[in-house]
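Dear H.,

Thanks for agreeing to be a second pair of eyes. The structure we're designing against is below in token form, covering all 221 positions.
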């Protein structure tokens, strides 16, 4: 081989190396370019798949990188979703507690208002009781006036009972200091010891609360 031919071979090899380095450098530049462009966008994957100039190796790396970015975004969205769900649940719980508290407060206001009104009506009920007792004791309980009076009393009592009023009239029952006041004690063979002989004045309860204890006569032997 002549010196001239050797120079041609060397030049040819050098050109091949340059071409390879150029291709390698281009591939590296391509990867850097793809890295800068990758933003975790779902449409970007479609662009990569349609890019025929990309080598399989570069495309695979870029797709994997893009998938990782999408996974990170999904995690962030999931975390944000959970935060919003927790916040909504707390708001719902706070609203439910507020609603229950408001209903309870309104119910208590109504009960107090009913209590005040019914307490003012108790003397009226006492007057009805006295009038009816007089009519029964005088033998005029069949009189039209007393029958009308009894009907009015019963209607009034029904209205109050519908509002939660209960009569305390425990004749023959054991004395209960929570619902009764002992005005008189008396020995009796007909009633057990510490049991109630008679009710001198009716007592009343409103929704299981005593608003006026019954005044009673108690047997004490």
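And this is the sequence the design step returned. I haven't edited it by hand at all.
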């Amino acid at each position: 081989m002549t010196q001239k031919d050797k120079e041609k071979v060397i030049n040819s090899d050098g050109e091949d190396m340059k071409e390879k380095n150029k291709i390698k450098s281009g591939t590296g530049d391509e990867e850097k370019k793809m890295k800068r462009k990758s933003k975790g966008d779902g449409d970007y994957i479609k662009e990569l798949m349609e890019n025929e100039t990309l080598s399989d190796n570069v495309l695979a790396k870029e797709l994997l990188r893009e998938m990782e970015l999408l996974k990170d975004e999904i995690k962030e969205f999931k975390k944000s979703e959970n935060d919003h769900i927790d916040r909504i649940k707390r708001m719902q719980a706070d609203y439910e507690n507020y609603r229950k508290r408001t209903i309870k407060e309104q119910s208590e206001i109504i009960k107090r208002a009913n209590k005040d009104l019914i307490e003012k009506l108790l003397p009226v009920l006492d007057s009805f009781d006295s009038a009816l007792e007089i009519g029964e004791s005088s033998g005029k309980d069949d009189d039209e006036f007393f029958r009308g009076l009894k009907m009015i009393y019963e209607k009034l009592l029904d209205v109050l009972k519908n509002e939660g009023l209960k009569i305390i009239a425990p004749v023959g029952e054991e004395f209960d200091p929570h619902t009764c006041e002992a005005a008189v004690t008396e020995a009796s063979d007909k009633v057990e010891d510490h049991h109630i002989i008679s009710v001198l004045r009716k007592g009343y309860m409103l929704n299981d609360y005593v608003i006026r204890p019954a005044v009673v006569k108690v047997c004490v032997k």
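Two observations from my side: The longest strand covers residues 180-186. DSSP finds four helices and six strands in the chain.

Warmly,
E.
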